[in-house]
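Subject: for your reference before the review

Hello V.,

The reviewers asked for a structural picture of the protein, and I figured it would be easier to keep everything in one thread rather than splitting it across files. Below is the amino acid sequence we used in the manuscript, unchanged from the supplementary table.
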Amino acid sequence: MRIRDAIQEDVEWIVDYLAKDMFSLVGLEGFYNTQYLKEEFVPNLVANHVCLVAEEEKPVGCVGGIITQAMYNPDLVVLSELFWWVAEEKRSGLVGAKLLHAFDKRGKEIDVDYISMSLMPSSNVNINAMTKRGYTLT
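And here is what came back from the structure prediction:
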């Protein structure tokens, strides 16, 4: 498995998988505008922020985040995760952990002050694994 930067050709499948596996599972189907995500939001994320793809013979996961000023302190820069998706058949393996590691590494490379992750209530993420990697629950 390799992890690479997303390219514009990845946008459509990223949005399709997010809409199918993530947004629909949390009951937020109407909250997201997939046309906007495909035409503007995810292409901007790929071009100007952080969007990484895990692939074997085909994509098996992705993580994306926006680089922005901290909400409560404009002197700080945050890489804020917006989505972190792994194909269902790969969720018991290391794909998610490798994506998280690459996302964290990228944040350090671009010298952000903080990296922010969020978890949905339905997430299967092992919170203990996150805290072992230095993340703090707030």
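For the response letter, the relevant points are probably these. The helical segments are 11-23, 34-48, 95-109, 127-132. The beta strands are 2-5, 50-55, 59-70, 73-86, 114-116.

Happy to draft the paragraph if you're swamped.

O.
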